[in-house]
Amino acid sequence: xxxxxxxxxxxxxxxxxxAISFANFLKAQGKDAKACMQSDAAxxxxxxxxxxxxxxxxxxxxISDAAGKDLALVDFSDLGQAPxxxxxxxxxxxxxxxxxxxxxxxxxxxxNAQPVGCTCTVLNEMYKNSxxxxxxxxxxxxxxxxLSDTVNYKSPTCTDADKAACDDLAAIAGVTDKDELFxxxxxxxxxxxxxxxxxxxxxxxxxxxxxGNKVGCGQLELAAxxxxxxxxxxxxxxxxxxxxxxxxxVLLMLTDVVKEGTDLMFVSDDPGLVEGAFGSKLDxxxxxxxxxxxxxxxxxxxxxxxxxx
Length: 309
Ligand code: MG
Ligand code: MG
Ligand code: MG
Prior knowledge:
By secondary structure, the chain is α/β, with parallel strands linked by helices. The protein has two domains: 3-187, inorganic pyrophosphatase (n-terminal core), CATH 3.90.1640; 197-306, Roll (Diaminopimelate Epimerase, Chain A, domain 1). The chain is built from ten helices and eleven strands. The chain has helices at residues 13-28, 46-55, 119-130, 136-149, 160-173, 178-189, 197-202, 232-244, 271-278, 295-306; strands spanning 3-6, 33-37, 61-62, 70-74, 90-96, 110-113, 205-210, 213-222, 249-256, 261-268, 286-290. The strands form two sheets. The chain has a six-stranded parallel sheet with strand order 3-2-1-4-5-6. The longest helix has 16 residues, at 13-28. It is globular. The protein starts with a strand and ends with a helix. The mean pLDDT is 95. The chain binds magnesium ion (MG) (3 copies). Residues 14, 75, 97, 118-119, 149 line the site of one magnesium ion (MG). One magnesium ion is lined by residues 14, 75, 97, 118-119, 149.
C-alpha cells in the first residue's frame, strides 16, 4: 500500500511542497509513496498555485478520509488539522517544525521535528544526510516554501538553518534572485481586488480566549499598504460586524512585508488597552507598529499580557 504524505488542513505552500518533497524522498528510498493534500486543486490557495505552476509541478491528489491508509504527516502533528478518521489510519512518519501535537501511535515511527522556520528546511537536511539528490523542480518549491514560511527571512521564526537551506535549494533550482521569487508569491498571496471583505478578514484569522474575553486577529500580508487603500472603510466596517458577534476586540494586521511593519486596525471595547499594549496611539482606525510581522510571536503574546492572561 502506498504511503500518503499529507500536510495540514487548509494547506499552505509548506504543506504542499513538503508533501511532494517527502513523497519523493521515500520513493528514492525504495518505498511506495505519493503526495496528497487536504484540498482539491481548484481550491488551493493562490500562492501555492503560483509556485506549482512556476516550477512545473502538479498539485498533489486530494485526500479527505484517512481510514485504513498508511500516512506520513508533514508540517503538523495536531489531530485537529488531520484528514477525517486519522485515528483509523496508520501513521508511519512525521516531519515538522511546530510544537508537538496530540498525535499518538501504537508503534515506533520516524519522527523529525526541529525548531526551524519551515518543514522544507528539515527535509533539505534529510536529503543531504541520506545522499539523495533533490530534483530541480522539487528544490524550487521547497525554496518557495521556506521563503513563504519565513516571510523572506523577515519573520522572527527564521533561523540560520533556513537561510542555509535556501542557498542549497536555490543553487539546485537555478533560482538566482530569491527576492523576485518571493515578490511573485507575495503578489499572488496578497491579491485583494474583487475579494469579498469578509474573505479578506478571515483569509488568515484566529480567535483567542484572553482572560474570558474573545479576541479575534486576522492578518493580511501585503507588498504595500496602498493595496488596501480603497477598502479601508469597508474593512473597518467588516471588523465592527465581526466584533458585534460576541467579541471584546477584533484586530486586522495589515502587514507591509517590504517596510517590515504592520498597520494594526482594530475595534475594541477598550481601545486604550490595545493602544497601551503596543505603546502606540490610534491614528484614525489603525496604528503603525514598526517591526510587527508575526501574529504568533509579536501580536498575541503582547495582547495576552495586556488582558492579564
Ligand atoms: Mg503550514
Ligand atoms: Mg510550515
Ligand atoms: Mg504561514
